[in-house]
Each structure stands twice: as structure tokens, then as C-alpha cells.
Amino acid sequence: MISKIFMYLLAIFLCVMFALYLSAAIGWTFVYIFVCAPVFSFLVTLFLHTKKSIVLTSDVNRTMLYKKETVTLKITAANKSFFPVPAVKLFLAVPDGLEPASGFKSCVMSIPPRSETTVEAVYRAKVWGGCRIGVKSAELHDFMKFFKFRMNLPQSEENGLLHLIKVFPDIPEMAGDAPILRAAAENAKLADDSEETRETDNVNCFAGMPGYTHRDYTEGDPIKRINWKLSSKRDKYMVRLDDEIESVQQNIVLDSRGGSNVYENERAVEGVLAAALGLLKCGFESTVWCRFGSIASAAKATGTAGAWESFSISEPADVSALQLKLADYGFADESERCGRLPSDELSEKGSGAGILLFTSLFDKALSAEISAAEDKGIMSAVISSDSVSVGNAYQIWKLNEDYSAELISKG
After folding, report:
1. Considering only CA atoms, which of 231, 268, 234 is closest in space to residue 252?
2. Tens digit of each residue's pLDDT (9 = 90 or more) over 259-309
3. Distance of CA 2 to CAs 144, 145, 146, Å?
4. Hey, which of 26, 240, 307, 398 would disulfide with 212, CB 3.0 to 4.6 Å?
5. If 0-12 CB within 10 Å is exposed, 13-18 middle and 19+ buried, where does residue 30 land?
């Protein structure tokens, strides 16, 4: 600002010198013009601002995208006045989940009288989750950039200049014989109270005949459950335990609270999808537990997050449906009072099976909830993407960036 004033005063000084030593008529004319210019510039800009002659609108070409896809933000400024608009400076919202492919975070628009000017900004999705793009603030500058007025922007969801963009999480591949999937079967075996199921080996389903355990045929078993190939090898009838496997259905839980690292949060979310699909490929159905509504206005007003929701995964389409649902997922923050495990919900359903707990904030508070869940017969295998884990559990797995998991602690 100081440099602008200095240049302005220098211009007036040169005009005075021109009037005194070269041409008085022309020189003094320029002096009067330069002296009156700021006044005229201020009055025109004030008129445009007071009369709300500038109308800003924005739109996006899509609201749902996968990572690495792009979305285009189109901003239009319309001038309803017969005066030209000197300059409108727009400050754009650039969330962590998107990166500006066009390379700018603000832009300046000049608008002719009774006309429109449009500018476009392109963003590329890089991280899962919901975020808002658009115009977060705007300023109206005068012709000489001596004065500026902050513009009032529409705040309603329908007419606002910010748009909610949802980025789908990926579904990483997890091998069927991955150790973490074996842990899922082991936890289910530990927590199941059925004597008949304890006599079987649930882990065998990961080596040989995916998805099934077997026992000797007894009178009354359905003939269609006999595994004829295995029966011929063992020289006795063997029956698949489809129903008993379903009774110890795997439970996958996404911690309702996340850490401060968006990439570790993303890894926890995508780890849930990877585990659900991996178990399904091994013949295991599962139930995924997530707590939605933590970023809703109602939740913010009450200080509590939404209720736990369960999603049954019995076919690949269910994983895809959960992927769409998780694009709208938001972790609870410290101000929201909520449990981080669905212990009561699992107990009410009579589900004593162990759980795979994915978290990006493995702290002492979560450890306390895990201990309380163990008292209810719920064993937890914690899969942590948190780089500074300080919690304790029956099993702790480290979820790496390539979505492989390594066992770092076993109680």
C-alpha cells in the first residue's frame, strides 16, 4: 500500500513539474485528473458495493469422485450496474483432500458494465473424505487499489459458494492368506462358546478349502452339506459347517475417533474395506461397524456423535456399497462424547465373536474401552495406522502404507 501511495504522489509531482516547465495547460489538467481520480474511484466502488451490483455464483461439474480424478469449479461474477467493476478478488477454499491442478488459490476478476466474467479452477482428488471447495471470501477493490470492501457472500447450502465434494476411498487388495485375516478367524474361535465349534479348526479355511470347516457327518445333517471329495480322502463322511461359520461371523470395527494425520485416517478407512473384501474372498461373511453422523449439525449441537451402524458384507456388491457410504464418513473430534467400540451393540446381539478394530488413534483411552469390552467377552485385534501408538490390546497389528499388516504385540 505504501508503494502505491508513493507512486501516486510521484505521478502528481511529475505532472506539476511538467506544468511548470513545459506546458501549463496540459500539465495542470493531468494534475487535476490525478487528484480527483481517487475520489472518483472510491465513489464508484462504494456505489457498487452499497447497491450490491455484483452477483457471484458458482457450480461444480461433479460432487463424487475417486482419487486422482478432477473436479472443475466454475465461478461467475455478474455486474448489474452501468459502471465497470474495477476488480473483484476471490479467495478460494483449498481443502487438504484436494490439490489445485490449476495452481492458484485466489484470482482477480474485472467485469464490464452489465456483463459477466467467468473463471474456472480445477482440483484433483488426493485423499479420501468429504471436503468443500468454492469461494470462501471476496473483496471489491477500487480502480487504483487504494480501497477495498469485503463482500457479503450467500451462506445457505442451496445458494452458497462452497460445494461439498466427496472422495471415495480405495479398496486395497489383501491376500487371502494374509496373517491379519488368520487373526480374524482365531479371534472368532476364541470368543465362540459353542463346544462343537471349538472342536473344529476355523483357521483351516485359509489353507486348502477356503471358507469352510468340517466335522464328521451325523444323522440328520443335510446331504447337500457333505463334502464328497474330502469324504473320499478320509474314508468317512465330512460335513461343511456353513451355518456355524455364519454364527461366528467376523466383526470389523472402524474407530469412531481419528488422529490428526489425514493419511493415517484414510489408511484406517481403506483397511476396513480391504479386510471385508479379503474375508469375503476366503468365504467369510462379515459385519462392518461404523459410527456415522459425527460431523452433522445435530451432533455438533448436542456434542454427541451418531449411533453405531452395522453393514452386512455377504457379497462383493456389499463392499462397493460400503465404499460409497464411507465417502461420507467423518471421524468424531475431542469435543464429541461417544464410545469408540460398539460393545453394547455387540452384546445385545449376542455376538461374542472377536473383532478387527481399525484405528488411526491408538491411545490409552481406546485401550481402556478394549479392556472393558474383554470383560464382556469381546476380544479385539487392533490394526493401527497410528505412527505413535501408545495403547495395549490382546493383539496389535501395524497397518503399513502398502496395506500389509505385521503383528507387533500379542497378549
Report:
1. 268
2. 888 899 999 999 999 999 988 887 778 899 998 865 443 334 444 457 889
3. 13, 11, 10
4. 240
5. middle
